Amino acid sequence: MKHWMSMRRMAVGAVSNSTLFLPSSLLSSSKPNPLTIPFSFYLTKTSPFSISVLTRQRRFLSVSSLTADHHNLSDFGDGDSVAISNEGLKMLLKGMTYPELEKWVQSHGYRPGQAMMLWKRMYGNNIWAHHIDELEGLNKDFKKMLNENAEFKALTQKEIRTASDGTRKILFTLEDGLVIETVVIPCDRGRTTVCVSSQVGCAMNCQFCYTGRMGLRRHLTAAEIVEQAVFARRLLTDEVGSITNVVFMGMGEPLHNIDNVIKAADIMVDEQGLQFSPRKVTISTSGLVPQLKRFLHESNCALAVSLNATTDEVRNWIMPINRKYKLELLLQTLREELCFKKNYKVLFEYVMLEGVNDSDGDAERLIELVKGIPCKINLISFNPHSGSFFKPTKDERMIEFRNTLAGAGLVVILRLSRGDDQMAACGQLGKPGTIQAPLLRVPEQFQMAIGSSA
Question: Which residues form a coiled coil (predicted)?
Answer without folding.
Answer: none
